[in-house]
Structure formats: C-alpha cells, structure tokens
Amino acid sequence: MTTDWRALPPLSALRAFAAVAEHGSLTQAARALNVTHPAIAQQVRALEEELNLRLVARQGRGMALTPEGARLAMALTDGFATIASAITDLRADQADRPVRVSLTAGFAAQWLMPRLRDFWERHPDIGVSLHPDARLVDLRAEGIDLAIRYGDGKWPGLEATFLASARLAVAAAPDVVQGTAPMTTAELASADWVLARDWPEQDNYLRSLGLVPENLSRTDMTTEELAIAAARQGLGLVVESLALLEDDVAAGRLVVVHDSRDRLPAYFLVRVPGRLSPSARAFADWLQDAA
Predict the structure, then answer these.
(1) I need a labelling partner for 158 at 20 to 30 A (CA). Which of 18, 41, 175, 261 fits?
(2) Per-residue model confidence as pLDDT tens digits over 201-218
(3) Structural domains in the chain?
C-alpha cells in the first residue's frame, strides 16, 4: 500500500493530540512534550481544523475525547508505540555494533595500530572496525561513526577537531645520512629516495625544498607504509608526516633530516554533526588523549 504523505496532517499536531489522549490533560501533555500549554492547545485546534472534526470536548473542568478523537487516538497510540519500539531496537543494535572508523592505511598502520591495545585495555567491551581508504568517504551513506582525515580541517557539513600535526618531514635510516642532519638542498637532490606514488602533497613539499620530484633518483612505492618500510631498510630518503614517523624516530630506526615546521595540513578527527553513541564518544575521547 502506497502512503499519500500529502494527505496526512503535520506530525507535530498528531504527536500533540496523541499526548493529550494519553495523559487526559492539555497541561500534562505539555509537560510530557516539554512545551507550553498554549502550544499544545494550538496544535490540537489545528488538527481539528485540518480534519474538520471535533476531537476533544470539555467535560466539567477536564476534557474527554469525542468518538472520532478516541478512534484517532487508538490508531496513533498503536502507530507511535510501533515507532518507539523500532527506534529502541535500532539504538540497541547501534550500541552493540563496533565503532566504524574511516582513515588512511598509513595512519592506521603507523600511528593507530601501535596504540590500539591501550584503548582495548581501557574499554575491553567496545569493538572497533577500521576502514582504511584513500577516498573521502561519505560518512552518512557508509555508516561511519568517525573519520581521521588529512587536510586543513575544512570539510563541508562535517565537524572536525584537530588531532595531530601532520607536517611533512624527510627521514632516512641512520646509515644513509651518516650523522649529517639536516641535509642541504644539494645533498637532498643527489640522494636516493623511496616515495609514495600519486601523492600530490609529497611532491609539492619536495618542490618547496627546491627539488624537482621528477628528477630525483627515486623508487616509487604504491603506498606510504611501503615507502617507510623501504626507508627503514636504508633504501633511500622518505617523505612522511612527523606524526607517522615519531615511533621510528624514537626507536632510532629513522632520522629526520628536514622538517617543514608548518602547522597545516594536519590530522583531524571528523564526524557528522549530532550525538555520538557512547562507544564512539569513548573512542573519540581516547583518540584525542592519545594524540
């Protein structure tokens, strides 16, 4: 059966009348809906005018439903109860499902995975589902709770919170730089490189250093994480954000030979405006603490 939506009265009026029928009082209905008494009365009058029917009649100091009002109230009670039950079930399903997080493969492998154990030790009952993707996915359409994005923090229709600096740097294994850091432009130009393929930010950064990306002695890797892995093995210099290099630098596997010092671009925690589930809120709070 197809619903003629244009033939239905406004939902706000139907809800107000259903509350009046349930509580038997305009005043009690107003309290239940957290609105004023006149607002409830106006909605009920508007519904009566829409239907050209008397739905509520005064009875002494109180009120009573007319036969037509009782018939409508019964249908609305069943309908709103079904809606409330479905919403309760949906919220329960949402509470049980893992937190869905969209992020780049590089951030997942280099920054998040080494720290994720700490989150599960604090929240063993919360599941996390990571969705590595180089695309800017539609968070609403794909049911994503949170995203970690690289950029300037401006994505229309979304809320973004600064998470971690993503300023770019050049790094290499200690044996490659032989203790000389920072390296001069001439030294950078003559060095071997392991670079991620099809990464415009990387090439723009190299140009800002006075280098011509196409003229470098370079080995192209399909992903950032492969480029970092190759740099650890001493195969050349690599460009990456400091946030993703910090563990390697702290462990002595890589040495920073040039740092851009720019605040942007950065990594941002991004979400659709509105209320987060308790699980997603817990993960968001943990991310910001960890960063």
Answers:
(1) 261
(2) 889 889 989 999 999 999
(3) 5-95 (1.10.10.10), 97-166+266-290 (3.40.190.10), 168-259 (3.40.190.10)
Question: What pLDDT, in 10s, does the model give residues 131-165?
Answer: 998 788 999 989 899 999 988 899 999 999 999 88
β-strands 128-132, 99-103: how paired? Answer: parallel
Which of 170, 134, 129, 167 shows the shortest CA–CA distance to 149? 134
CB 291 within 8 A of CB 266: no
Strand partners, 170: 239, 258
- The predicted-structure confidence for 44-100, as pLDDT tens digits, reads as follows 999 999 999 999 988 767 789 999 999 999 999 899 888 888 886 676 656 568 999
- Please tell me the total number of residues recorded for the chain in this structure: 291
Sign of the Cα torsion 17, 21, 27, 31 reads: negative
Buried b (16+ CB within 10 A) or exposed e, 248-286: beeeebbbbbbebeeeebbbbbbbeeeebeebbebbbeb
Q: How far apart are CA 258 and CA 289, in angstroms?
A: 27
